[in-house]
Amino acid sequence: MKTKEVQIPTTFQVWVEKNRNKAISWLDTQSEFYTRIMEEPTTRRTALLVNLIAVCLMVAAITVEGDLTVSFVATLCAGYLAKRLNATDNKQHFNK
């Protein structure tokens, strides 16, 4: 007969969970700066994804002559981030 041991969460696990929820709620709040620039409601998550896509595309363009693998990986990262951006946009439109 096996008995299950109760796993007590460590203080680190509790800290990670608490701060994870804070970070998620911070990302989902409206960014005043980007809302003023775009003249439509924009969350911090959307602004962060757009900026990361721009950085990946710049890295891909700069490194294309020097190292094709870095350029290829940066392009893949930009594509993945664009996919994530479209997924969050679609989710927001369906929730309205």
Describe the structure.
The protein has 96 residues and is mostly helical. The protein is built from four helices and no strands. The chain has helices at residues 11-27, 32-38, 44-63, 68-95. α3 (44-63) packs antiparallel against α4. The longest helix has 28 residues, at 68-95. The N and C termini lie far apart (52 Å).
Outline the secondary-structure elements.
Blueprint lengths: L10 H17 L4 H7 L5 H20 L4 H28 L1
Helix pairs in contact: 3-4
Which descriptors apply to this entry?
single chain, 96 residues, 4 helices
Summarize it.
Helices cover 75% and strands 0% of the residues.
Rg, rounded, reads 19 Å
Secondary-structure element series: HHHH
- Poorly predicted ranges: none
Shape: flat
Number of β-strand runs? 0
- The count of helical stretches stands at 4
* Residue fraction in strands: under 5%
Mean pLDDT: 87
- Termini separation: 52 Å
Helix share bin: over 70%
Biggest β-sheet, characterized?
Answer: none
